[in-house]
Design a protein that fits this description.
CATH architecture: Orthogonal Bundle
Largest sheet: 2 strands, antiparallel
Helix content: 40-55%
Strand content: 5-15%
Low-confidence stretches: none
Number of strands: 2
CATH superfamily: Winged helix-like DNA-binding domain superfamily/Winged helix DNA-binding domain
Mean pLDDT: 83
Strand order of the largest sheet: 1-2
Number of helices: 6
Length: about 160
Amino acid sequence: MPKDRKPACGESPCVATAMRKASRRLSQLYDVALAPSGLRVTQYALLSELERRSKKPPTMHELSDAMVMDRSALGHNLRPLERDGLIALDESKEDRRRRHVVVTAQGRAKHREAKRLWQTAQGRFEEVYGKSEAIEADGGKSEPGLLDEVQKAPLAAADV
């Protein structure tokens, strides 16, 4: 924590509560930066994931796993993207019950527009807190950072 910032009154000793509070604050930073694009940070993250996987579009199940998001929350976040023509749900050729989430040309253009805004928020975070090893020291090319490890760790009762 920067020296000029005081801890919040009545901080919780619960790691989950502290992480959720930090996550909400961080989401606010990115949402404000992304506002001119019309995207929220979760929608930007979905478009980023779909861009990375554009050669082999994920199914709804694969995307929900990749985003560590339950299917109902994923659907809630995909609906506006589909409505605005930024993504499409394509029926699988192998199994008609499965749907692949595909970023459209309009979605790729929106992602490029929003990426500049996202970089502003990313720069602001790094300006205040420094480039964090907690995230990933090398952009995920070799060793995972603490947050990457937490995302993939079998911490839930069902995972143990």
